[in-house]
Every structure is written in C-alpha cells, then in structure tokens.
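Hi, here's the filled form for the chain we discussed.

Project: internal
Contact: R.S.
Residues: 363
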Amino acid sequence: MKRRSFLTSAGVGVAASTLAAPAIAQSQPEIRWRLASSFPKSLDTIYGGADTIAHRVAAATDGKFQIRPFASGEIVPGLQVLDAVQNGTVECGHTASYYYVGKDPTFTFDATVPFGLNARQQNAWIYNGGGMALLREFFQGYGVVNFPAGNTGVQMGGWFRKEIKTVEDLKGLKFRIGGFAGQVLAKLGTVPQQIAGGDIYPSLEKGTIDAAEWIGPYDDEKLGFNKVAKYYYYPGWWEGGLNVSLYVNQQQWEQLPKTYQAILEAACFEANLTMNAKYDAENPAALRRLVAGGAQLKPFPREVMEACYKAAFELYDETAKSNPKFAKIFEPWKKFREEEYLWFRVGESSFDNFVFTAGAKRG
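And the returned structure, exactly as it came back:
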C-alpha cells in the first residue's frame, strides 16, 4: 500500500512538473515589437544582427515576445533610426551611433572613434571599463536605452578612383565616410559625404563621390564597389572595431517584464559575438576574390596616416573644450585607451606580429 501510495504521489509530482513550464510561459504577456534597421537585407552579416536578436528572443520566450526587423527604408530611412525610436514610431532600432554625430559628436563613443579601440578593446571599455554607465547617462537624454549588438571588427580604408600618395590628394576629395571620421578628414580638405549603405554604389558609379568606405571585403564585394573603383586602401583607421547598437525606446523598455528584459539583453550579447565572428570568417576569402578580380590593394602612406592621426586628436581636444557631454566621456575613454594599448603592445601585438611573420615565411 505504501509503495502504491508513493508511486501515485510521485506520478502526480511528475505531471505537475511537466505542466509547470508551459504554465509559466503562459503567464507572460504577448508582445510584438517592430525594429527599424539602418542596413539593407542584402548585407546579411550587419543586418543579420537584428535577425539574431529577433530569433533568440522568440525562441527564449516560446514565441511570446516577437521582434520583427525592417530593413533600411522599409519604415524609415537608414539614417533616421534614432529619431524613429526616440519618438516611438518603432519600439527599437539596430544602427551605428556615429550616424548621429550631427546631433552631438558624443554619439561616436557608442560606435567607434578614429584611431581608438579595436573590437575587443571596445567591448572591454563598454562592459568592464565604465563605458556603459557613461553611455547610458548620455542616451537617457534621448529617451533611449542602448545595448551593444554587433561589431564589425577593424574595417578597410575604402575604394578610390585615384591613388592616394600624399596628403594633398585628400583635398577636394568627395568621400563617402560615416561618423566623426568625416570631420577629421575635413580638417585636411576632404569633402565628407554621409550616405546610407544601399545608396553608396550608385553615387560612386555616377561620380557623385570620388571614394567610398563601407566595412570590409565581404560586404564590399556584395555591394560591387570593385566594379566602379579599383584602388582598395587599408586600414580603416576610423573604425578599429565598429560597435553596432540596439536602441530601445525608454518607455517600452520599462514596460517589459524583467524576464523579457534579461532575454533581450542576452540576445544582444549573442549578436555582438556572432557578427564579429562571421566577418572574421568571411573577409579573408572575399579579399582574395577581390584581388584576383583586379582590385589593387594598397596601404595608406605613412604621411597620410600621421596627418590624419594629428588631425583626429586636434578635433577631439577642440570638441571636448566646447562640448561638456563629449568631454565627460572623452577623458576616461582616453585613459582607458592608453592602458589597453600598453597591455596589447606587450601581449597581443607581440604574439600577432611574430606568428603573422612566421606564418608568411612558411607559406
């Protein structure tokens, strides 16, 4: 009797446990959000960060929390995502913060700073170096909660119709370049143009611009820049590691159940990791194909790099003097950068330089 009683009780317990998970899921509300992306669907890696977030959130909530991504131009133009999130046109957006330096140059710290941090260093600063608290305080003024949600890694220097041999060659050059880097180059006489990704090719093809940068070989090949400009320069000193962000409307974020908040944050972590990993995996073969197809791969001359570096830090000092919000982030960011560089010179750079050289010798 006792044995039968125990088995019956155990059976009830098992049945109850099998019902518990769906019952908990059923207790959560059904939420439908729209996400405006700054990127075209054809660029599966950078646009794909939004898909990663949407799929993970849906899977982790048993479909209760759905986020539907829309490509650049489907709801709002790619460079108006911040406005759309801020005014509630959409609940969230996937974008690069340096698109909005015209509103305030402080946005650049959430994306990338010319001659600044690489992808790992950017993550270190945001997650563990005090960057997140500084950025959240800044974004609060726009009614937005920001999350790192992708990183391209270091980028290429772009496609040019003519060779860049001296600093003089930058003067009068109409160059599609995003973010704060355009203001750096303007100090050297370049005419920066901020154009969304999907509109770059026709502008370069028609001669509206003389040069263009986007991300790197994998995306550049998809966009076909090699068909209209043959000189492919490196490195993209303005983007050592572009952080791509998820913007969430502040009110919408506060209304989310805590469980959904945690799931969304974890999904952004995943998007941050997988975007960087995919670019690192896809860029080598794409670069080989571009060069085999006739692209002329060239490094920026030392003279040009040094002139740009000097102009960049002159601009930062000037901006910090006139913009308290910029200065509040710039000073601790600069200190963190100096410490990171010290460590990377000792550890990462010495390792990389040796194995890259040794590997090249071995063929």
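Let me know if anything looks off before we file it.
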